[in-house]
Amino acid sequence: MLANRGEQQYLDLVSSIMANGKRTKNRTGVDTIATFGNQLRFSLKDGSFPLLTTKKMAIGAIIGELLWFISGKTDGRILLDQGIKIWAGNGSREYLDSIGLEDRGEHDLGPIYGHSMRHYGAKYVDCKTEYEGIDQLQGCIDMIKRDPTSRRIIMNLWDPVQLAMMALPPCHLLYQFNCMLVEGQYELSLMMTMRSCDVALGLPFNIASCALLVRMMCEVCDMLPGDLIINMGNTHIYDGHIEGLKKQLGRQPYEFPKLSLPKRQKIEDYTAEDFTIEGYQYHAYIKMDMVV
Prior knowledge:
Layout: H1 5-20, E1 22-24, E2 32-43, H2 59-71, H3 76-80, H4 88-91, H5 93-98, H6 113-119, H7 136-146, E3 154-156, E4 172-182, E5 185-198, H8 202-221, E6 224-238, H9 242-249, E7 258-260, E8 276-278
Parallel strand pairs: 5-6
Antiparallel strand pairs: 1-2, 2-6, 3-4, 4-5, 7-8
């Protein structure tokens, strides 16, 4: 079996946190072991798609959530109607009441990722309101096309003015796109920064989601995929995930699958049916409960 260096980075990070992490308390009431300041790098060239293989990944949920972000919507019921439950806990009546959002409708998640991507700065009312604001995602696409060597192709999802209105402040909060001319054609890379990184459940999801976003933007902007770099601030493992991760560490990674998708004029034109993943060989699913 060939070594998958990309996934081995992730497994090495898990091992390092388990060996060197410091026990910390946090808002959830479930303790973690954590380190601060880590980085992973993945090549997206030749269609490589960094979808972890040491456990079965819920690719349908990853694609569904990303398309939901891109739509600018913040109504968690849109995901629930698709059978995607990753935001169910943060949108429940009990949880919203517990963080002081008693007047918020159930599963109305506030000005989270999609709102900041497509309507940054627009004062949030509810998930049914139509917004304008700054379309950061389209702004990045426009700049990539107009001025690909710019060092200012940035999408910032941290809106301090409206943090208190969010069901959950963004964990992945800064996206910087970079274009490099390689043999006469531009390669598009992304460096994404996380303030808080749930290594067992959130990080594998974020890696795949960011890779999908880069590939979509490559097709829209007529560029080749380059690299994906993930920077992590507080990088933690919840106590309840330790045994599952130990099981995962005992598995040999397979090679990453290949991703293909068609060209589209607009990033909003993509649907779940557009994503074709080939050669995804994986180990069995490992149950680890999400901590809210």
